[in-house]
Amino acid sequence: MSEFGGHRPAVSVVIPAFNSEKYLGEAISSVLAQSIAPAEVIVVNDGSTDRTGEVAAAFGDRVRVITQPNAGCAAARNHGVRASTGDHIAFLDADDLWLSHKLQVQLAALGSEPAPEIVFGHVTQFRSPELPVEAVHLPEGAEEPQVGHHAGSMLLRRETFDAIGWFTEDQERGDFIDWFARALDQQRRILVVEEVTMTRRLHLSNMGLTASLGPEEYAQVLRRVIERRRKAR
User: Fold this and answer.
1) Are the C-beta atoms of residues 84 and 42 closer than 8 Å to each other?
2) How far are the Cα atoms of 41, 179, 181, 213 from residue 185, in angstroms, in the given order?
3) pLDDT tens, position by position, for the chain (233 residues)?
4) How far is CA 62 from each of CA 31, 39, 43, 56, 107, rounded to the nearest angstrom?
5) How far apart are CA 12 and CA 59, in angstroms?
6) Where is 197: in which H helix or E strand?
7) Where are the domains of the chain?
8) Burial class (CB within 10 angstroms; exposed 0-12, middle 13-18, buried 19+) of 61
9) Hey, which of 116, 153, 167, 215 would disulfide with 121, CB 3.0 to 4.6 Å?
10) End-to-end Cα spacing for the chain
11) Which pLDDT tens digit goes with each residue over 101-142?
12) Cβ-based burial of 191 (10 A; exposed 0-12, middle 13-18, buried ≥19)
């Protein structure tokens, strides 16, 4: 790849998974189908009580499976990063899908000048086939491409992740909001490519439908961000 001076970056993909047997296989397949293959795919089985571990193990040596007691998505992502070896990091939730050009487009963007430190893509949403249309109301335009400030649409260098720090593990949700706020506070160079790189599945049990960030949790995240910024003055 000429844009990397002959060196192809090694991408570690971390997939946190909790009771994800229904969709995990599709998620993994979308990562393995990349036009530029990742160096490793790590599934962190977050204390699942279903066949999540078996689904991941069925991919053989193409996927590394790590099992931990249930500790939440943030802890699973952090565990996966600790175990990874690549010089670039990417994430995918176990119920979402990457488009096949995701890594190719974003690696090219990271190799451009002036070089960004974090690259996001655009995201679309789709109803899972078993989800009745009447089960969720989508606002007009919700299925159109949106800027994907989402862990699953992100690619970044390991050194950048290390500088920003781990995902916060002491809250059930909002960990990525907190992490992204830290990236902004550090004035990291961020680029959003025009291409759609991820599709987000809507289904009856995913976070977006049944456990959206509540007011108290959102306020907790904001308080953390404000306090950090106050101390930095």
Assistant:
1) yes
2) 30, 10, 6, 22
3) 345 555 678 999 999 999 999 999 999 999 999 999 999 999 999 999 999 999 999 999 999 999 999 999 999 999 999 999 999 999 999 999 999 999 999 999 999 998 999 999 999 987 766 666 666 666 566 678 889 899 999 999 999 999 999 999 987 678 999 999 999 999 999 999 999 999 988 755 654 444 444 444 444 555 555 565 556 55
4) 11, 10, 11, 10, 21
5) 16
6) strand 190-202
7) 2-232
8) exposed
9) 153
10) 43
11) 999 999 999 999 989 999 999 999 877 666 666 666 665 666
12) middle
CATH topology of domain 2-232: Spore Coat Polysaccharide Biosynthesis Protein SpsA; Chain A (3.90.550)
Angle between helix 175-185 and 215-232 (nearest 10): 20
107, 195, 224 from 120: Cα distances, Å = 11, 9, 24
The tokens describing 156, both together, are 């970044």
Q: Give the position of tokens 């961020």.
A: 190
Q: Are 197 and 99 in contact (CB under 8 A)?
A: yes
